[in-house]
Amino acid sequence: MNLDLFDHPDFHPHWREDLCPGAAVLRGAALADESELLRAIESIARLMPFQYRATPGGYAMSVAMTNCGELGWVTDSRGYRYQATSPESHHPWPAMPDLFRTLAMRAAREVGFNDFVPDACLINRYQPGAKMSLHQDKDEVDLAQPIVSVSLGLPAIFQFGGLERSDKTQRVNLTHGDVVVWGGAARLRYHGVLPLKAGEHPLTGQYRFNLTFRKAR
Ligand SMILES: O=C(O)CCC(=O)C(=O)O
Predict the structure, then answer these.
(1) What's the pTM?
(2) Ligand 1: distance of its center to the CA of 137 in Å?
């Protein structure tokens, strides 16, 4: 473990655990903003309700999703992709709140990705039993840009693997306020989330929310 307090005065004190070169967990880095982040998720979801999408192969996903930012990640029988509008309403996704962008940029910078400016934020909502199978994030144009992933609410077990699906995975416990960043040599590592255990979080009830920030274009 690398104990390393972040030097921005307005960034919540936290510590960093390196997972491998190019990847780290910033424990508690989103805690200072917890209420505002959750309020923003609520407002975004009022405009663009969470949807259960299907994979191109027709499997229903157990995680509900919405997006904010210039581009949103979607999946259906036409494939995985980013698009500027919601497939349901055909309206542009809600703007990315400044707080979201700032948090993602700071986290990326702390792990060495100094010019990350996300244009897409996928918001995942997990209820007990929901999971995300091992996958690589590779629908983005510039794979030199990292991924920043913020956990809020119920705890989850994040699987962080290698560059091949069959590689051994590390199990990382993610709790409310943790931020994971991966890029560089780690950018295409397989990752996923094991089925969420039931519980009650004081701020999110029976849910876990995840914000995944990417530079899609
Ligand atoms: O929920 C998480 O922590 C990870 C989400 C994820 O892997 C993704 O959206 O691609």
Answers:
(1) 0.95
(2) 9
